[in-house]
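Retro notes, structure queue

What went well: the backlog is down to a handful. What didn't: a couple of records were mislabeled last round, so from now on we paste the full input next to the output in the thread. Example, using Deoxyguanosinetriphosphate triphosphohydrolase-like protein from Chitinophaga sancti:
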Amino acid sequence: MTEQTTDPRPFLYTDKDKSRNYLENLSKACDYRSPYRRDIDRLIHATCFRRLQGKTQLYPGFESDFFRNRLTHSIEVASIARAIATKLNDQDKFLEGRPIDLDIVEFAGLAHDLGHPPFGHQGEYELDSLMREHGGYEGNAQTLRLLSKIEKKGFSDGDSYNGIEGQDERHGLNITYRGLASILKYDLLTPEQRPRTEFWESGEQKGKKIKPVKGYYWFDEDLVQKIKTATGGNEPGKRYKSLECQIMDVADDISYSTYDLEDGLKAGFYTLQDVVFPKKKILQAISDEIELELPDGKIFKPSPEKVGEILQNMFTEFLFQNFQETQIRSIDDAFKYLNSQYSIISDYSHNGYQRNFLTSTLVNRFIEGVKLIPEEKFPTQSKVILTDNILGEVEVLKKFTYISQVLSSRLKIAEFRGREIVKEIFETLDKPGGCELLPDDFRNMYESPSADKKRIICDFVAGMTDRYAIEFYARLKSENAETIFKPL
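Corresponding output:
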C-alpha cells in the first residue's frame, strides 16, 4: 500500500471563503448544497434578479421580445463564464487537483449586472449626477450594496427591518465572501463627495458626460476589507480581482461583442458588409476609443487602418465561404458570385440560423483565446486574460457595436427620455413631502432618524425596471395615470 502525500501547493479555496458577513443557523436539510450553490439559489429567487428582465440591455424592452434584456444577458454571461472555467480546469496543469469552482463563476455571471438602474447606462449617469455630492452612483458598487444590504433575505434579531428603531440592519442575501469577491470588478473606493460641476479631475471637456467612478461605495469599505481578508485579496501593492471575477469579466466582454452584434443585425442597424467595410468615421471613432494595457506592459491602440484590418480578418470566413478565384472567368461568373455574396450578407441579417452560426462561431473562437497566467504563491490572484490577437478582436467588435448602435439618433431619443424620467422621479421624491410617495418599506426607512435620505431615494429609483419607472412617471405627470389600486 502506497503512502498518500499531501499536495504542498496553496489551495484555491479555504474555509474562510465560505464564511459570510453574518452567522446563520442553517437547517441540516441544506447540507446537500455547497455554500456557493446556496448563493446561486438565493440570487435566482431574489427580487433584484427577476427585475433584470425589465431592464434595458441595448434596446428598450418594449420594442421586441427577441432582443436581449439584462436578465438574458446575465444568463448568457454565466454560461460563457462557466465554459471558460471548465476549459481552464480541463486544459491548464496549474489547476490540476485544485479546480476553479464552477458555482462561484456562474454566480458571478448571473449577479454582475444587478446594480444597473432603469434605462441602462443613461440611468446610471443621471443617478450619479444627482448623487455626486452624496457618494455617487455606479452599477458595480450598487451590485455589492444589493447583495449585502438591500435585498430582503435577513436582518438582525431585535431590530426592525424597516429601520424604525433607527438602525438599518438588513443583511441582503448574506452571500459568502468568495461570492461577493466574484463581483468586485474594481478595487477602488469611490469618493464620498465630488463637486457638482461640469469639470472633474479626469480633465473631461466641458459639455461631455462625467462618467461614474467605478469602484465600491465609501460606506462599504469595511465590508470590502472583510471580503479581501477572507479570500486572500490583501496582497500588498496589488489591486484585488478574484480569479472568478476575472473570468466573469472576460465572459461579459465576449457576450457584449458577439450578442450585441447579433441584435444589431436583427434590428437592421447594419449588415455584415457594414461590419467588414465600415465608414472611415466609424473606424476613426473605434481607434479613438481603444487604449488597453496588455499583460507585457505594451499598449494596444490600433490605428483606423488596423481596426479595419481586424474586422476584415475576423469575418473573412463568413463572407467568402465558397469563394474560389478560378471560378470567376467571365462577367456572368462575376455577377453570379456577387449575387451569391449578397445572399450570404442578407442571410446574416434575416436568417436566424446564420446569425446563430455567426455568434456561436465567434464565442467559441474567443473562448479558445482565454488563457491563465498562474500565480503560484497567491493562486487566487492568478490572471485570466485573452491572448493579444483575440483581445484586439473582442475590443474592436465591442466598440463597433457600441458606436454603430448606442450612438445612433434612433437610440439617443430613447436615452434622453430615460434620463429625464429618472431625474424627474428622483427630484420629486427628494422635495419636501416627497417621501409620502414612496412604498411603505422605503418610506419607513426614509423616516428613521439616522436615514441617509438621498441614498434611500436612489436605491428605490435604481431598483425600478424601465416599465415601472415609466408608469411611476406617468402617475406624477400624465393626465391618464394608472389606477390607485395598482400597488407601488
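Agreed that this is the format going forward. Reviewer comment attached to the example: The chain has 20 helices and four strands.
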